[in-house]
Amino acid sequence: MSILAGDIGGTKTHLAFFEQNTKGFVIVAEKKYPSHEHGSLEEIVVLFLQEHAVIAEKACFGIAGAVKHGVCHATNLPWEIEVESLAKACQVGKEKVAIINDLESNAWGIKALDEKDFKVLNQGVPEKKGNQALISAGTGLGEAGIIFMQGKLYPFASEGGHADFAPRNAQEDSLLKYLRKKWNHVSYERVLSGPGIANVHAFLVEDQKMDEEAQVLSEMKEQDAAFVISKWALEKKSDVCVKALEIFSSIYASAAGNLALKMMATGGLFIGGGIAPKILPFLNRSQFLDAFKDKGRFEAMLKDVPIKVILKEETALLGAMVFARDMLD
User: Fold this and answer.
1) What's 258's DSSP letter?
2) Which helix (DSSP H) or strand (DSSP E) does residue 255 occupy?
3) Structural domain tally of the chain?
4) Does residue 148 share a domain with residue 89?
5) Spatial separation of the C-alpha atoms in residues 275 and 141, rounded to whole Å
6) Domain range spanning residue 20?
7) Cα–Cα 20 to 30 A to 247, which of 83, 174, 256, 314?
8) Statement to judge: residues 27 and 90 lie in one domain
9) Burial of 84 (0-12, 13-18, 19+ CB in 10 A)
10) Which of 72, 73, 74 is nearest to 83 (CA)?
11) Angle between helix 41-52 and 83-90 (nearest 10)
């Protein structure tokens, strides 16, 4: 069996061609394309298949955006992506092609990971037949559920990252008021994302009147703000940057705890996205677990939930392959 899998984002489109051998499915061809340099996903698919002279029997693409009735309007791209047109590009029947939300794709990819691909934050006591959940902060904030049903785990997408941000203390009340001056609706994504880290930092400087190093402010104008803030925080060279990541990490933990409750994720909570692996020293500490389980009467349940950070960047790509393998007849 051969599968074309894709991880589609606003910056890049990562395609890979998998073939089955005695050890399972292995990548025999892959390439990353700048998304904005192409008019459609179909254009990239046709180019990839021609460049590598391969023929796919099945195909699945994880895309940043809500998928409804086989159609997705990509969040950060001017593309309308349809199963039917992708099937034509792949030259297979439309029943052999799927498009799924990128977080759902990440969740499917968990099945393809090894223990070395995780950093354990809480060993917990997992229930073998328990649901799981995935929260993922990166360019935005994504959430997915993984339901245990008939002996198997089935991921499903959500848009939970756009739910209302709920402050837990006076400082977070002030943060919400600060963010409301910019947006009428303040979602968790306004805090738990790359731009969210910059928002928290700006709140500390502009609203809380903390003094920032001139060099930090200068670097933030020239480079990605979240990268600069994280770098200075990890090096402990800026009190403001350290405070920004402490607030970010605490709210991240609380949101993860909320998701674990909503999904009854007694089988485990996974943290994906590009941010978590880069700020592990701020996540791998007791304060994170305290914020995660601080849910009143349900603290006892949450302390037993395993928490793992996903370290492998290609998880969404692997998830698209797993979905095509397991769910497309």
Assistant:
1) H
2) helix 239-263
3) 2
4) no
5) 11
6) 2-106+314-327
7) 314
8) yes
9) exposed
10) 72
11) 20
**Rg of the chain, C-alpha, whole Å:** 20
Q: pLDDT tens for residues 58-70?
A: 999 999 888 999 9
Residues 84 and 123 in one domain: no
> How far is 129 from 70, CA to CA, in rounded Å?
30
Q: What is the largest CA-CA distance in the chain?
A: 61
Q: Which DSSP letter does residue 56 get?
A: -
Residues 187, 301 share a domain? yes
Would the CA dihedral through 257, 259, 261, 264 be positive or negative?
negative
98 and 209 share one domain: no
Residues 132 and 270 in one domain: yes
The string of pLDDT tens digits covering residues 147-193 is 999 999 999 999 899 999 999 999 999 999 999 999 999 999 999 99
In this predicted structure, what is the pLDDT of residue 200? Answer: 98
Residues 6 or more apart whose CB falls under 8 angstroms from that of 269 comprise 132, 133, 134, 135, 256, 259, 260, 292, 305, 306, 307, 308
In terms of domains, do 306 and 216 share one? yes
Residues 164 and 67 in one domain: no
Give me the CATH number covering residue 41: 3.30.420.40
Tell whether 9 is in a known binding site: yes
**Helix axes 239-263 and 225-234, enclosed angle (nearest 10):** 100
Q: Report the side by side order of strands in the sheet with 24-34.
A: 24-34, 12-21, 2-8, 58-63, 97-101
* Gap between the Cα atoms of 111 and 317, Å rounded: 12
Residues of the chain with pLDDT under 50: none
Output the pLDDT for position 257: 98
- Asked if residue 10 belongs to a known ligand binding site, the reply is yes
142 labelled as ligand-binding? no
